[in-house]
Design a protein that fits this description.
The protein is an alpha/beta fold. 32% of the residues lie in helices and 20% in strands. Strands 2-1-3-4-5-6 form a 6-stranded mixed beta sheet. α1 links the parallel β1 and β2. α1 packs across α5 and α4 crosses α5. The longest helix is centred in the last third of the chain and has 26 residues. The relative contact order is 0.15. Bound molecules: inosinic acid. The site of inosinic acid (IMP) has 16 residues, from β3. The site of inosinic acid has 16 residues, from β3.
Length: 216
């Protein structure tokens, strides 16, 4: 039994690999020639499960998906689930950042609070499903700082760090990011799910649990 990541993002693949034992085989949906469904959900959780269910059904393997984005309090939670397409299609980081700054013109620093949110969803071959959430708080700057990361990273000053997400090394970001926190939230149960399938393959008996209850 292998894990299929419902994403083609190599950064996410690396993050997940870092958290799992090195003998776990992980492939991306793209490597298997699979298309991801459209993200039509109203929440990060809905979108993460949309992707994970689609890939689990198509592959009969364990699927892992994440959905993430930025919520800004002064914009009532926008861009939220629309983070990637905030300034329209096709998704463009520079245009998204420019629009975010335009919408926050004149908003003082203290009111520019927000957070990156991520939900990681796991769906097994028999519909076993669980998820975990991760977030990181910060403030939206008036000008970009740093050259690392992607998306809104250069505008996001991390609470308590005096650095933006784009001023962190990849390892530093992966230690504290919303997505890493969400990945860490599912790792224990993901490993257990993987083991139930692998145990069953080794001794020939069906000792799978029919349902794994996890709510984080
Ligand atoms: P997705 O969940 O990978 O589709 O990400 C949705 C969008 O949210 C991205 O296109 C970015 O605009 C934003 N986003 C998600 N995670 C991050 C991050 O770690 N840094 C910066 N932007 C992010």
């Amino acid at each position: 039994m292998r894990i299929v990541l419902a994403s083609n993002n190599q950064g996410k693949l690396r993050e997940l690999k870092d958290l799992l034992s090195s003998d776990v085989e992980i492939m991306t949906a793209g490597e298997l020639g699979l298309e991801l469904p459209e993200e039509t959900g109203a929440t990060f959780e809905e979108n993460a499960f949309l992707k994970a269910h689609a890939i689990a059904e198509a592959t009969k393997q364990i699927a892992v998906a994440d959905d993430s984005g930025l919520e800004v309090d002064a914009l009532h939670g926008a861009p939220g689930v629309r983070s990637a397409r905030f300034a329209g299609e096709p998704s463009d980081d520079a245009r998204n950042n420019a629009l975010l700054l335009a919408k926050l013109t004149g908003v003082p620093a203290k009111q520019r609070t927000g957070r990156f949110q991520s939900v990681v969803a796991v769906v097994g071959p028999q519909g076993e499903a669980f998820s975990a959430h991760g977030s990181i708080e910060g403030e939206i700057l008036e000008e970009p700082r740093g050259s690392g990361g992607f998306g809104y990273d250069p505008l996001f000053l991390i609470d308590g760090y005096n650095r933006t997400m784009a001023e962190l090394s990849l390892d530093e970001k992966n230690a504290i990011s919303h997505r890493a926190r969400a990945f860490r939230g599912v790792v224990e149960h993901l490993t257990a799910l993987l083991n139930t399938y692998n145990d069953c393959r080794v001794d020939g008996t069906d000792n799978r649990r029919s349902h794994i209850e996890v709510e984080t």
